[in-house]
Write a structure and sequence with these properties.
Radius of gyration: 22 Å
Largest sheet: none
Order of helices and strands: HHHHHHHHH
Oligomer: single chain
Number of strands: 0
Strand content: under 5%
Helix content: over 70%
Number of helices: 9
Length: about 240
Amino acid sequence: MSKGDTLDRTIAFLQKREGIDKTLKIVRYTSRLVVAVSPPGSDTRKRFDALQSSVGTSRKAYRLGKFLQDVNSLRRMRLGGNSLALLELLAYAGEGTYYFLDQFLWLMKAGFLPKHQERAVAKASAWAEVLGYVGSIALSSHKLQQLSAQEAQLARKVQALMKDEQDGQCIDGSLLRQLQLLRSARLLRLALICQDLADSMTAVNDITEGRVKGFNHPVAISCAGLLSAAVSTYKYWNA
């Protein structure tokens, strides 16, 4: 078996916490999509609804302690008073609070803690999640602008070299590789923004308790979750 084949990469992917989490996310939102399109009261609907509910609780348990990653990021931050630093603070604090509260939701769903505060904790967790996405989307948008500018500048440089027939014969291959890397990084950053927007849709639906039309449609929520899971899977698969 050659190094880096599909099986090797799958094993490496599933050895990561993020790999397991994103695989479970795909299972959950695929199940929710099946539930959304299945006839009410059907056996298929009941089975997949039970599966998505179980996987949802399992994901909360599997993310135990994940908020510490955000705490560590906050600890290493250098606050200089600029807008980017404030956006990083918002992104890490929002995400960390979301994961921290998610642990209590897991304990409530497991029956270890009383459930009378579950609704309030779930709403606070969703608000923290949305705020984290606001910071993350703003940071990604800034990074996307930087990557686009760098890519355009390098593309102009390559085109200028190619216009000269003599130089066109000896363009440094590293320039073309760098251009390809910048293009890939830009597309990934754009995909990450789409991921955050999709997850934000789900969080807003949790905050409003499904009262906003468009955000509350089961098929739309399922597709948003699958989009987010697909982007994350691509990111960590190639990491």
